[in-house]
Design goal:
23% of the residues lie in helices and 35% in strands. It has a nine-stranded mixed β-sheet. It has six helices and 21 strands. The chain binds copper (II) ion (CU).
């Protein structure tokens, strides 16, 4: 009796600890799993904002923001010739109703240009109540997904109240939740049944070895009976007739239809990206001191704008290192990690218009390690990439430069 009790307590605690592990993995659903050089040097997100984080079923919300496509795109990652902006959700908890890139609505994939900046907006509608961690992300063809910053969204209300109706070009209002469902089920079942029947027709007879021996004995004519041939002919003729007839019926029932689009959308980067190229940053050296968890950059900054500027922020992947002397109101309301005092400048005086200054910038925080960005030094591609934000005082303009450098690790 006693051992049974101990056993059940042990197994219960094992189950509980497994649960605890599970919760951990669910909370972090692979955001840090991608190699740091991919997270830092492909799509560089900034100013990502959600219009609302608490809303009800049927309510529309939007996520908008900007991203820079890194000039120093990793050589091992295919170029973003076909990229699809998507929203990662745990199942169909939201529906997407509209999507814009640089203010233009688009439905297909798009070719992104390294070095370009883009603004995006995605409109979503609550479908299933619950609390979910949601990210905008890019599906890059042949490369995979690059996650943007995530947030917790809380959808309240009743799932049964969800309405998803659209008006077709023929003027008919249809319910997208059930439209065409029986037709879809019919075709899946029909092809599955036909394929299974054809397979069973042959499988029910002696198979490989018996047939092989008959073949060896020169009895190959007896392997396929007259009935087999009849059935084969019936399928050969019947299936195309059935498909063509169904196609003809569909066309006559829906004469006005738009085919599924397979083209690539062409959307150029924001040409008048605010202050693009006004501040040049050349990274001369980058060193990462492992015990201190500090990245030291030696940069040459050339201020070609007409404003005195200061370094305010360094954003790498999902971490933002801020200069606390220049704490700017955040234009990002996502769960991005913030090191509020993470940025130290060797020379904090404003860089004057026309001035060229070589200076040291240190980004120091345990987030390098906890966000697994320090894995960079063990990668075959140890180049870092990020966005450096300059400000003209607390209320002035903002200038953004994309920086990149090979990182040299210092182990002590
Ligand atoms: Cu997440």
């Amino acid at each position: 009796m006693k051992t049974l009790l101990i056993k059940s307590v042990v197994s219960l605690s094992l189950i509980l600890s497994l649960y605890a592990l599970n919760i951990q993995t669910v909370m972090a659903h692979g955001e840090k799993a991608l190699e740091p050089f991919i997270r830092m040097r492909t799509i560089q997100w900034y100013d990502v904002q959600w219009s609302k984080q608490k809303f009800t079923v049927n309510e529309e919300i939007s996520v908008s923001g900007k991203f820079h496509v890194a000039e120093d795109w990793p050589v091992s990652v295919p170029k973003p010739d076909a990229a699809f902006l998507n929203i990662s959700t745990p199942g169909p908890v939201l529906i997407r109703t509209e999507r814009f890139l640089n203010g233009k609505p688009y439905v297909n994939s798009v070719a992104l240009q390294p070095g370009g900046d883009y603004s995006f907006k995605v409109v979503l509608k609550g479908r299933l109540p619950g609390r979910y961690h949601i990210h905008p992300f890019f599906n890059l063809k042949d490369a995979g997904q690059v996650m943007g910053p995530g947030v917790w969204l809380e959808v309240s209300g009743n799932a049964d109240d969800f309405r998803n109706e659209v008006k077709t070009i023929n003027g008919e209002v249809i319910n997208m939740e059930t439209y065409g469902l029986s037709n879809g089920i019919f075709w899946h079942v029909f092809w599955g049944a036909l394929a299974a029947a054809w397979l069973l027709w042959w499988v029910r007879r002696p198979l490989f070895i018996a047939r092989y021996r008959m073949l060896q004995a020169g009895l190959e004519d007896e392997l396929v009976t007259q009935q087999d041939k009849h059935i084969g002919k019936a399928i050969l003729i019947g299936v195309p007739i059935f498909v063509l007839a169904s196609n003809w019926m569909t066309i006559s029932e829906y004469p006005k239809a738009i085919p599924l689009q397979a083209a690539l959308d062409q959307i150029l980067p924001l040409s008048a990206q605010v202050n693009a190229g006004m501040v040049d940053v050349d990274t001369l050296k980058a060193e990462y001191r492992i015990p201190e968890r500090a990245m030291t950059f030696l940069v040459k900054i050339n201020n070609r704008s007409d404003k005195p500027i200061q370094v305010g922020e360094l954003a790498v992947a999902n971490v933002r290192f801020l200069n606390k002397e220049l704490a700017m109101p955040s234009q990002d309301n996502t769960d991005r990690m913030i090191a509020p005092d993470g940025l130290t400048l060797a020379d904090a005086t404003p860089i004057q218009p026309g001035e060229e200054r070589t200076m040291t910038i240190i980004a120091k925080d345990a987030l390098w390690e906890s966000e697994r960005l320090d894995g960079l030094i063990r990668d075959s591609d140890s180049r870092i990439g990020g966005l450096l934000f300059f400000y003209d005082g607390l209320v002035g303009e903002r200038f953004i430069s994309s920086i990149t450098a090979a990182v040299i690790p210092k182990f002590n």
